[in-house]
Amino acid sequence: MLTSVDTELLKVLADPLRLQIVTLLAHETLCTTHLVEETGARQTNLSNHLRVLREAGVVETEPCGRFTYYRLKPDVLDALAGQFAALADTARTHADSKRSC
Fold first, then answer.
1. Regarding beta strands 67-72 and 30-31, do their DSSP bridges make them parallel or antiparallel, or are they unpaired?
2. Could you tell me the pTM of the whole model?
């Protein structure tokens, strides 16, 4: 059985600004205004990145008046971490395996 890692989620998290957003949201639920202040990104750029994170299932939204708050979904990161852990276990199990040429 081959162990694979969610490559689409990796692509989403590979962007430096999206990774910064995820890191900030790991500490607290924030609105777009807070994220603009913390990252220095333009609001439209930030909104596009938040849309990508939302569509990938990494964050969820909570409307609050005229603001939208964003919260990290840790289960998604746990699942990704589990995929990497399984891959590491496979590597340990097959560390002495070598295919002959």
1. antiparallel
2. 0.85
